[in-house]
Structures are given as structure tokens and as C-alpha cells.
Design a protein that fits this description.
Number of strands: 14
Number of domains: 2
CATH superfamily of the largest domain: Butyryl-CoA Dehydrogenase, subunit A, domain 2
Radius of gyration: 24 Å
Structural class: alpha+beta
Distance between the termini: 70 Å
Shape: globular
Bound molecules: iron/sulfur cluster, fe (iii) ion
Helix content: 40-55%
Largest sheet: 6 strands, mixed
CATH topology of the largest domain: Butyryl-CoA Dehydrogenase, subunit A, domain 2
Length: about 475
């Protein structure tokens, strides 16, 4: 693919071999690798599904959920891949966008007699047959947050229709924080919030090949990202994988009608946002997979440093496990309690999906805190790999970085670097702030929880037990 991509003020010609991009690309490659029956027969049930369109076996990331079992497998897939990569593997946003659109295009057609669902299903078939990676793009730049889209001084702060033509539309604006943007074949745009009639030019959804002319990618920075350029690269912590976010500018980009899935039906914009968000909040089972890596690293470093038998260390490890399994349990619960929507697609239990993600805005921080507690301050004060291997001073560094007998000094350093990566380094970008804001910030989940909870039932239980109601 030929992206117009910029990083550190330069146009990137070969993004495939770029040392900062490659680890993120390896992550997306893992979504294909683990679906390979010959290599990973044990993951077939979670990584693949049967297409409801063609009856063929497909990658689960391209699948429209047909049952609660599908939803449960989706949660498990997130954990497996999170543990395999120790990173955000970027492909869930597309899966969640496809599933949300499968429902909302159907509902819009029921109300307006439009043909969005037919268009969408033709597109879905293409995605499934080619096993494509789609990037679900929701978050707009938003400008002045106190103003609605149509009230902004700059109309481009929310992605909108700039021109309508006989064969399609021209769109302008920007999608922010786009996970996996240049590792995707397709980009699927959706509105970022509920819209009013005045905002109808902003109530649009469409899909395009990611390298369509006029789409400009500007690569986001992560803490310690330039360590990925270093060679040798022990200091990077996660030597195989990493995440990716871009600012994606739509500089007057043409979209043909057959790729438009919502056009000014502003009354459905909020619905599309909520349905996508519920799915994506479920997807954060990925963080339990990363948690597996961090808990494993914490246990290892305790063993390497001779603290693993201390009762307070054991207690901290158990606390980490409890937090991690609580996140996973909620993701599974919203899947097990999923339901069939009018289109036939299965959706998650919205209340529990939001509780799940609200936990994710907190627990990885608690787990990271415990990991740093167990590892020690050394994760942020340790000399570099080059010092460890320096012909003159290397022997000093090695001597004073030694832990228990029988453990290689390099093993201790590598695990410490992995903990650094996940809690303050490049990996922390997807383990911590992404847990806070990805799929919506905490308040977005609290609003949904407040809306979904059956308070009348709770009050009635209380009234009966204290004798107000007979
Ligand atoms: Fe998937 Fe998690 Fe990355 Fe979101 S943060 S795309 S849910 S791996
Ligand atoms: Fe995300």
C-alpha cells in the first residue's frame, strides 16, 4: 500500500521496514498467525468463525457475531492475543465497526427504506473473502468541546461532507488516535457522538481503502519510541511487538456511494456510537492478556531478585491476578448475556460491557503500581544495554546488577525492561492511557451505566425489605 505517511517531520517511504512501525505491524500479523490451523490448532475455535454470508471459515476479526458463543470467543481471542503480543494488536476496532454497522444499517433501512444494509453486506463479503484488516475510526478532533459540530468556528473539527456529487461525496476533517491506522487495508469512519438536525452533515459513515488519495497519516509518538531504532534493542523491553496510533487527516477525500453506509441520518448517529462503544468496551479483554504478561514478568523478577518467597510479594501477585481476572470476568459476562438484534447480529449486554471497560480504566493502573512495587526503582534507573556490554565498564554494571545465583544478569535486565515498557515506556501507551480513554473515557461509561441500570427494581427491593411496601 502507498500511504501518505509522516513521522518526526519526514515523509516515510518504506513503512513496512521502519523500525518504529514494524513491531506494530508484527502485532497485526499475529492476528493472522494465531488463526493458522497448522501453526496454532489450539486457537482455531477462538480465532476463526463461520461466515453467515458464505458459510466459509473466516478470521474472527471479519465475523459478524451470530450467537453468544461467538461473543464469548471474541472476548477470549482478545486475551489470547494480548498475552501473545503484550501489546495492542489493533484489529478489534475494525471488527467492532463492522458489527455495529451490520445492525445500524439494517435499522436505518427499516425506518427510511434506504439500501445501506445491502451495500454494507456487499462490502462485508469483500472484507471476509480477502481477510482484510479494517480500522474503525470514530474520534474526531472536536475543537471547542462545549460546542456542537455545526457550532464550531472551524467546520472541519468534526469529519463532514464537504461536497455531494452524482457518484459520491467528498469528505473533510480528521480522525484522532487511530489505532493501527497504517497497518490497515481499509478505514471505516463513523460519527463520534449523537447528532442534532443542524449537525446532519456530520452524521456520516463510510469505508475506503486506507491509501486513498487525500488521506494523510501523521504518526503518534509514544514514550521511549526511539529506543526501537536502537541496535541492539534489549532496552526496548518488548523486543517483538508494539502499538500504533495516528492522526488521520481527510483532505477532501472522495467516497463513492457504494461505500457510504450513513448519510445525514442524524437520528441514528448516537445509536451507531453506542453500539460500537459497547462492542469495543467488551474488546478490552485485551488488557487481561497484557496483564498476564505483566503478572508473569513480576513473578519472574521476584524470583530473579530473591524476593519471591516473601509473603508480601506473594500477596501482591495474588492482588494482581484478582484485578486481572475481574476485568476478564466482566468482558465474558457481557458476552454471555448478549442478545440478538433485529438484523440478526448478536450484541453484548450494554450495562456489563460498560462496567467491564470502567474497570479497565482503573485496574491496569493498580496492576502496574504493584508491578513497579515488586520490581523496584531499578526499572527507571538502570544503565543501558550498551553500558552493560561496554568493554571497560561493563564488568561493573554486570557485577552490581547481579541478582540470585544461577540467573543470567541479562535475563534480569530484560524482565526489568519489559516491566518498564509496560508501565512507563512505549507499551504503557496501550496498557495505561489507552485503557483510560480507548473505547471512551470513564465518564462515557458512567453515563451509560447510569442509563442502563434498573434502579426501580433496586428501590423496590429496598422498600419491600424495610416494610414500606407490603
Ligand atoms: Fe483491540 Fe485492545 Fe487494541 Fe483496542 S486497545 S484495538 S481492544 S487490542
Ligand atoms: Fe482502542
Amino acid at each position: 500500500m502507498r500511504f501518505e505517511l509522516y513521522m518526526f517531520g519526514e515523509r516515510i517511504a518504506d513503512h513496512v521496514e521502519h523500525p518504529i512501525i514494524r513491531p506494530a505491524m508484527n502485532c497485526v500479523a499475529a492476528t493472522y498467525e494465531l488463526a493458522d490451523q497448522a501453526k496454532f490448532p489450539q486457537y482455531q475455535a477462538v480465532m476463526t468463525a463461520t461466515s453467515h454470508l458464505t458459510g466459509k471459515k473466516i478470521n474472527r476479526f471479519c465475523h459478524i457475531h451470530q450467537s453468544t458463543e461467538d461473543l464469548v470467543s471474541k472476548s477470549k481471542m482478545g486475551r489470547v492475543l494480548g498475552a501473545y503480543t503484550g501489546s495492542c494488536f489493533q484489529r478489534c476496532v475494525g471488527m467492532d465497526a463492522l458489527n455495529a454497522l451490520s445492525m445500524v444499517t439494517y435499522d436505518v433501512d427499516q425506518k427510511y427504506g434506504s439500501e445501506y444494509n445491502k451495500r454494507f453486506l456487499a462490502y462485508l463479503r469483500y472484507v471476509q473473502d480477502e481477510d482484510l484488516v479494517c480500522d474503525g475510526a470514530m474520534t474526531d478532533a472536536k475543537g471547542d468541546r462545549s460546542r456542537h459540530p455545526a457550532e464550531q468556528a472551524d467546520p472541519d473539527q468534526y469529519l463532514h461532507v464537504a461536497e455531494e456529487k452524482s457518484d459520491g461525496i467528498v469528505v473533510r476533517g480528521c480522525k484522532m488516535h487511530q489505532t493501527g491506522a497504517v497497518n490497515s487495508h481499509e478505514i471505516i469512519c463513523m460519527p463520534t457522538r449523537a447528532m442534532r438536525e443542524e449537525d446532519k452533515d456530520y452524521a456520516i459513515s463510510f469505508a475506503l481503502p486506507s491509501d486513498t488519495e487525500g488521506i494523510i497519516y501523521i504518526y503518534g509518538r509514544q514514550p521511549c519510541d526511539t529506543r526501537k531504532i536502537e541496535s541492539p534493542n534489549m532496552d526496548v523491553g518488548n523486543v517483538l511487538y508494539g502499538g500504533q496510533e495516528c492522526m488521520v487527516v481527510f483532505d477532501d477525500v472522495f467516497v463513492p456511494w457504494e461505500r457510504v453506509f450513513m448519510y445525514k441520518e442524524y437520528d441514528f448517529a448516537g445509536d451507531l456510537v453506542e453500539k460500537f462503544a459497547a462492542y469495543h468496551r467488551q474488546s478490552y479483554a485485551c488488557k487481561s492478556g497484557i496483564g498476564d504478561v505483566l503478572i508473569g514478568a513480576s513473578q519472574l523478577i521476584a524470583e530473579y531478585q530473591g524476593t519471591s518467597r516473601a509473603s508480601h510479594i506473594k500477596d501482591k501477585i495474588i492482588d494482581m491476578i484478582q484485578l486481572n481476572e475481574t476485568m476478564m470476568s466482566c468482558s465474558l459476562a457481557c458476552a454471555y448475556e448478549g442478545h440478538r438484534e433485529a438484523s440478526g447480529t448478536y450484541s453484548v449486554n450494554t450495562l456489563r460491557a460498560n462496567v467491564s471497560k470502567l474497570n479497565v480504566t482503573k485496574f491496569p493502573y493498580d496492576i502496574a503500581r504493584l508491578a513497579q512495587d515488586i520490581a523496584g526503582g531499578i526499572i527507571v534507573t538502570m544503565p543501558s544495554e550498551k553500558d552493560l556490554k561496554h568493554p571497560a565498564i561493563g564488568r561493573h554494571v554486570a557485577k552490581y546488577l547481579k541478582g540470585v545465583d544461577g540467573v543470567a544478569i541479562e535475563s534480569r535486565v530484560r524482565v526489568l525492561r519489559l516491566i518498564e515498557n509496560l508501565t512507563v515506556g512505549a507499551g504503557a501507551a496501550c496498557y495505561l492511557p489507552e485503557s483510560m480513554h480507548g473505547a471512551g473515557s470513564p465518564m462515557a461509561q458512567k453515563i451509560m451505566i447510569g442509563r442502563q441500570v434498573d434502579m426501580e427494581r433496586m428501590k423496590s427491593s429496598a422498600r419491600r425489605l424495610c416494610g414500606i411496601d407490603s
